Amino acid sequence: MVDPVRRPPGAARVSRRRYTGSVTDGPSSPEPLAQWLKDEALQQGFDLAGITTPEPPPHLDRYAAWLDAGLHGEMSYMAGAHSRSGRADPRRLLPGCQSILVLAANYSPAVSSPAPARIAAYARGDDYHDFLTARGRAIVDHLQQRLGRPVAARVYTDTGPLLERELAQRAGLGWIGRNTCLINPQIGSMTLLLEILLDVALPPDPPFAADRCGSCHRCVDACPTGCILPDRTIDARRCISYLTIESRRAIPRHLRHAVDGWLFGCDACQLACPWNQRFASPTPDPAFASRTSLNPPDLAALLTAPAPSFLRGSPLKRARRSGLARNAAVVAGNLHSGDQIAALGQALLTDSDPMVRGHAAWALGEHPGAEAREFLHRAFAQETDASVLEEIEAALRAERSGTAG
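and the corresponding structure tokens:
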């Protein structure tokens, strides 16, 4: 078997283990081809590379039980027949699949997210779906050139019905930690995964068998909403990343304070992980560098602009305009900064989405004083949506009593 490979921290994207065997091995001999392929992945900018088989995952029953319990929340695409079928057997996604190349890209930032409004580290730069997929397709192109024939392949990065972390563990890239993230002992858990399904027979790498979380529960203790369950699954309905990205509904009132300053995503469990604190090194990849337009994010623009231009090519567009305005209202309410009252008032009075208006009302209720109260009274006089009226009434009660909503 050929071991998975890793790019040296801080080095140029060149493998330390480039294949130097004899040309008599041939371009398609399995072991040298596997090593060449993983080295090519490092050349393309990935930090970890390993190979596994397309066999059905052994823990599919746990995933099915998680879905059956409704812990996936609104992510109905996960429970569909196509999704379940692909996760049950990757060969249904690519008939003739013989191997899966699993890659990981380190996105660990050089500095923490600027306070007070925070964005998950992976989302501060360009959209990884675009540039990682392009790198994966370049690997397939180079493989076809090496073999001198077309290669049937499918490239996925958080876009297809695959149990990505389980495939990564089987490919030797790390273990699945207590917080459900894949953890590599050399670079931690701040990685994004990409899988390339291939109709090429390659020797698989040994799986990562050790569980190095031990008795540590720091991620569980650090989770603001207690969404990490004892069986190493997540109750997505309570996860801040889910609430601020995937959910299209109102953030439950009892969880809004826990969102704190997280505008998009959440890194709390990863920031608490000793493997990230002690072993992770910042990524040198410029694609993950924080955009100046998001450093810090403009809450007022997110609350009032129809479609902020700084979201182009950013992962933040996943939450859509209404979701980001909803999130910005919650963050503005938690910050208790008078600088956002005018933007919140404008959103409450003029936004076309009742969800945004309702969250703006809640946030104004978190701001004591005449200015916020005036916006709430004006909105109450003109509002027709029952859910927004309920939020306004609750905000006025909270403001009068001096308690949070």
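(Above: one complete record from the training split.) The two ends are 58 Å apart (CA to CA).
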